[in-house]
Amino acid sequence: MDYVGRQQRLREALPANRLDALLITHLSNIRYLCGFSGSAGALLVSPAGSTFFTDGRYTEQAKSEVQAAKLVVARKTPLTAAAEWLGRKWIASRARKSQTLGIEGPYLTVAARRGLSDGLPRHIRLREAPPLVERARMVKDADEILAIRTAVDQGAALFDRALQVIRPGVREIEVAAEMEYAARKGGADAMSFETIIASGARSALPHGRASNAPIAAGGFVVCDFGVILHGYCSDRTRTVYVGAATTEARRVYEAVLASQQAAIDAVRPGVNVSRVDRVARKTLQQNGLGPYFTHSTGHGVGLEIHEAPRVAQGQPEILRPGMVITIEPGVYLPGKWGVRIEDMVVVTEQGCEALAPTQKEFIVI
Amino acid sequence: MDYVGRQQRLREALPANRLDALLITHLSNIRYLCGFSGSAGALLVSPAGSTFFTDGRYTEQAKSEVQAAKLVVARKTPLTAAAEWLGRKWIASRARKSQTLGIEGPYLTVAARRGLSDGLPRHIRLREAPPLVERARMVKDADEILAIRTAVDQGAALFDRALQVIRPGVREIEVAAEMEYAARKGGADAMSFETIIASGARSALPHGRASNAPIAAGGFVVCDFGVILHGYCSDRTRTVYVGAATTEARRVYEAVLASQQAAIDAVRPGVNVSRVDRVARKTLQQNGLGPYFTHSTGHGVGLEIHEAPRVAQGQPEILRPGMVITIEPGVYLPGKWGVRIEDMVVVTEQGCEALAPTQKEFIVI
Questions:
Q1: % pLDDT > 70, chain A
Q2: What is the mean pLDDT of the segment spanning A202-213?
């Protein structure tokens, strides 16, 4: 991974954002910038270079993982260590004129900010920085796309396992267990989120986790699942019908599939994400299903399962080559059933490529 | 669960802490106080009563779960909704004199605090509250101890599965996969943390997650694992030897076991947690192993896998009946191997009870 380039671009963005340095505490941002995958650390990026702070539990891991940054293993918390280090080194070299240190407002807690502030000399001011790293992370480089592609391939294979297991009477949680077991055996770091297996009326809940409920004969089963492989996430949804499908079930399924395809077709550089959302929504509206599509069309995926951009109404982002987003329209008939179909796509120079575009025909079990 | 009593006691603690109300945003604290188990919500506790804010995704779940609080399903984020609600109702009823709203500093982010503050009328001040809910959660009531006991029993059974799987050449991740599969089939909500299966030299890493490495013939395997069942966590460590054990390996194992037993024996009401830590440490020091016990002796467990109190040097907490803590001394010989033995205990009126105290004799595979 191009840690040097990523840090360099961030460094170059500091002056325009009126920051003398930026203290990165969000773990995904830290991993993106220097490779550290542990759970305690802080990365200080300044014009003079980068310094990574961690604690004694991560000495070996930090030594083997952290790139393009000096390493400080502290006896205290990484944040306290960073504050003390700044007080000693950074400031001394800058003749004690007033300095602005950027912090990550959406991730740093109020208590951590106070602790940091208490440890700093008075002439260092803290300021919430714009989401510079999150913006950079929206556009994936070739190494990242390869990692995501591998994660998507492995994630996609879990649905084959689900198809072997889904039967009337089998509990949702058993299906999830089989998929998660296959993922672990396949070498996944973890699931990228709690596996959703939602059958019967529960399929109408967009966030219905796998429950102890047995799968009923006659109804949809929504399977939403993903893995983390070498830090990168996959995310996919398939919906199957158990039992003899009604005409209405088939009609709704085909409408969701058409909506997804229309949205995928709309993905290309220069297009606003809100337009992709509008296209997905319009197809469902034309089928009289508009009111039942109750969430946004998609989101970015990478080191985090949900990251920028949001593919939703009112969002400002313009698609660029290298962005990786989900396209996941759904229809939810409350108390009855629901259908969702989701794939990840990578924006290319001309349009987009669906990652591991396995069959999406109506499946009856 | 006694949601009414928990909220009542919190309410009674507000005046002494100079708070007119407290806004709870930490999900475990929300679950403890009103039963909501979803991932987006805010609970406002004031003398006049409690109000829970969530968004449209959780309408049904909140209706079925939330107790002892009025429910507000907002179109915006729960925090924004809470701010607007406070601006309209709470303040109007209080004749606009200055009010102090407590926030949870260790959980609320800087950006969320700013958003909340921006949405509030000027005469409501925000102040970091002391950890009132965390302190209450330290002492478990009968319902909670029952839930924890059930989780520990289920968690303990996973080690039987591990013993069937651990063999030279089997990958650590396969052992973890088998245990996690058994947990899911047994109905666990999830694992309470990433399963640790650390073999060979990796057993000397206190936080060695299951890797792709095959288990070597000749060496310890540290297995640290737990489940979440109905929201409550279990946590346990067992260490086994694969191959013909050396005298040194047996000696170190027995020393860790003696250290754990001594610490368990020291647990009773009125004792400072730091004393329990000291007892565990002293036993290892007497065996010349003091420098190799590099972490603290234990921590509270409940709705979170790590919660108050910390069983460590310099900690102020005094043990009280109903507290549930881990006792987990370990010895780590860098580059060589490590041993850790961990059980959860509940403090009783006279002493303590180890939860599911399965055999801890030296096991050779």
A1: 98
A2: 86
**Does residue B327 sit within a domain?**
yes
A55: three-class secondary structure by DSSP: strand
Amino acid identity of A361?
A: E
Span B335-352, average pLDDT: 96
Does residue B102 sit in the same domain as residue B172? no
Stretch B4-24: mean pLDDT: 97
Q: A187 and B212: CB-CB below 8 Å?
A: yes
Which residues face B220 on adjacent strands? Answer: B241
One domain for residues A131 and A171: no
Residue A112 falls inside a structural domain: yes
> Sorting pLDDT into bands at 50, 70 and 90, what band is A90?
low
pLDDT at B90 over 80: no
Measured in angstroms, the CA of A171 and the nearest CA of chain B are apart by 9
Phi, psi (rounded to 5 degrees) for B298: 180, -175
The answer, for B111 touching chain A at a CB cutoff of 8 Å, is yes
Containing structural domain, residue B328: 139-354
Q: Which token pair is B327? A: 């006792």
| Residues B61, B152 within the same domain | no
Among A110, A174, A205, whose Cβ lies nearest the Cβ of B113?
Answer: A110
Boundary (domain end) residue, out of B103, B137, B171? B137
Cα-flanking dihedrals φ and ψ of residue B230, to 5°?
50, 40
Residue B152 and residue B132 in one domain:
no
Nearest CA in chain A to B205: A57
Name the B residues in 87-106 with CB < 8 Å from any A CB. 103, 105-106
In this predicted model, what pLDDT tens digit does every residue of A99-121 receive, in sequence order?
A: 899 999 999 999 999 999 999 98
Task: Give me the number of domains chain B comprises.
Answer: 2
**One domain, residues B18 and B130:** yes
Which residue reads 């925090």 in tokens?
B79
From the CA of A70, how many Å to the nearest CA of chain B? 23
> Which CATH number covers residue B198?
3.90.230.10
Q: What is the dihedral of CA A129, A130, A132, A133, to 10 degrees?
A: 70
Does a structural domain hold residue B295? yes
Interval A328-345 mean pLDDT: 95
Same domain, A265 and A281: yes
Q: What is the CA radius of gyration of chain B?
A: 23
Distances in Å between the alpha carbon of A23 and those of A5, A73, B25, B112?
18, 16, 25, 18
**pLDDT band per the 50, 70, 90 thresholds, residue B96:** low
Burial per residue of B313-341, b for 16 or more beta-carbon CB atoms within 10 angstroms, e otherwise: eebebebeebbbbbbbbbbbbeebbbbbb
Cβ–Cβ < 8 Å for A241, A364: yes
Q: Are A185 and B174 an interchain contact pair (Cβ–Cβ within 8 Å)?
A: yes
Read off the pLDDT of each residue in B39-45 and give the average, rounded to a whole number: 95
- Domain C-terminal end among A80, A111, A137: A137
Residues B130 and B143 both lie in one domain: no
